[in-house]
Amino acid sequence: MQINDELIVTIEKLSNLGLGIAKPDGFVIFVENSCPQDVVKIKITKLTKNFATAKILEIITPSNNRISPFCPMQKICGACQLQFIDYDYQLELKREIVQDAITKIGQLDIKIPKPEPSPQIKAFRHKIQYPVCQTKVSKRLLAGYYKPQTHEIVNIKYCPIQPEICDRIIDYIRVTAPEYGISGYDEKHHAGDLRHIVIRNSAATGKNLVVLVVNSNQKSTNYKNLALSIYEHFAEVSGVCLNYNNKKTNVIMSENTECICGKPVIEEKILGKTFYVGANTFFQVNPKSAENIFRYVKNYIADNLNNPVVLDAYAGITAFGICVADICEKVVSVEENTESCSLAEKSIELNDINNVEIHNEDAAKFFAKEQRKFDAVILDPPRKGCSTESLDEAVRLCKNTIIYVSCNPATLARDLKYLTEKGCRVQSIQPFDMFCHSFHIENVAIIQV
Q1: Fewer CB within 10 A of the end CB, N or C, for the chain?
Q2: Which tens digit of pLDDT belongs to each residue from 295-322?
Q3: Which of 241, 261, 328, 407 is catalytic?
């Protein structure tokens, strides 16, 4: 086999990154935009000792689960890798991804159920982060997602997985920013002004918090005037912020954010509770699917623990802690992001809750010095998962149940393997589809200590 070779293959399964896998003569070939049971003619684009990658030249026999994507940009935009696959079958493929990780990485004999579907499969995404650049000749601003495996921006004017108002706000910025002398960012030369447009849209109120990420460390009259223009033009915008990020980095936002006009937050509602969400705070991108997760966790605690004391670790804006507070004796929340803790305090006051204790501290450092025991420990770490030290401390502090919420099946499986080696028992794992039409999948694992 050589690069540019053409051959006909059958797609057998999906990889954990959403690529189809074919195995002619046992050799693994990853094929983009393919579905299991597709028979396709492919062209080899990359070849290594252990695997190859390929693109489709022709779909000879399509899978019965292949459909027409509802977005015309699906093939060139990197956001919805699986949109050409029937949604119900997407869920089955995600179940298989989780099952493979739990079996092969976690070495656990647990049958994974079908993911809980998202209540919405269109207009579900309520956090938008578009990189911005500028064309060389016409100097037009482009904003959208990157093409797969590139940093080439697809200029997206309409995205059906986000609220329509977000399209209108972004298009207004694209057209208006140059009128204020604001250029798009040149990543290669670390030049230009506007790096990203970030929008937080509230599913509860329809209001939007707009964040302009600029290649600067200070406010200018041009930036301020653009922010004011956006705020005055859209009644749906609750506030406009500037985020100052002049470092040569792939990190989208720095910690330095300034609200120029309006409010620096939106309000979101989950399980009857109201939350303040800011520019630099974590909150799930799919609030309706997130509500399914919060309800699942709350119901488990209510059904299995009597008036418990709960530790909410990697808590963000303490969403889990606030949602379960009314069935708990006490909730102790730990989060290292200062803005998240500040908004959590305000949300606690807004919801008239008096049994939640907030600690603005790194989780590992808090664990190491904490002596209280908790009936349940909720872990919701970032994609990299937990350190072994944090897992050891979580076991030490927990009297009964660890509830592990994860957006990465591989690191979840790794951490569950470690916990079982320490004597814990994994009772169940339930996937939830938070990120429709992508290979990403959220999971909630219930672990008995």
Answers
A1: N
A2: 999 999 999 999 999 999 999 999 999 9
A3: 407
